[in-house]
Write a structure and sequence with these properties.
This protein is mainly alpha-helical. It contains five helices and three strands, in the order H-E-H-E-H-H-E-H. Strands 2-1-3 form a three-stranded antiparallel sheet. Helix 3 packs across helix 4.
Length: 110
């Protein structure tokens, strides 16, 4: 087991404060960095996981790391341009019951 401060290089705050528990993270296709600037294994796991958008809370759970550590790792990747972070898409309000009944009645008449 690796201590959290080792993963973050002793940092306790992310360099960017853009991540919430529900922020969606997805990977940007870039070649791996040169050998001298290798990514940590946790960074690579995040990049593999986020081929499909995932919430910060999910990433943290999959990594089995505290959210605070995960956001620091994510901010590293965001600064390198390897991930995109965006708020979740809000779903429109559900249709009203009266409208659904009219649709049902119209379909029944067909």
């Amino acid at each position: 087991m690796v201590r959290a401060f080792t993963l973050t290089g002793g940092r306790t705050q992310p360099s960017r404060d853009v991540f919430t528990l529900i922020t969606l993270v997805s990977t940007v296709d870039l070649p791996l960095p040169p050998v001298g600037r290798r990514l940590q294994p946790e960074h690579l796991r995040i990049l593999r996981m986020c081929a499909q958008p995932l919430a910060v809370a999910e990433i943290s759970a999959y990594l089995d790391l505290p959210v605070s550590v995960t956001t620091i790792l994510l901010s590293d990747l965001l600064e390198q341009g390897r991930i995109l972070a965006r708020p979740p898409i809000h779903v429109a309000a559900s249709p009203q019951i009266a409208l659904l009944q009219k649709v049902r009645n119209g379909l029944a008449r067909l």
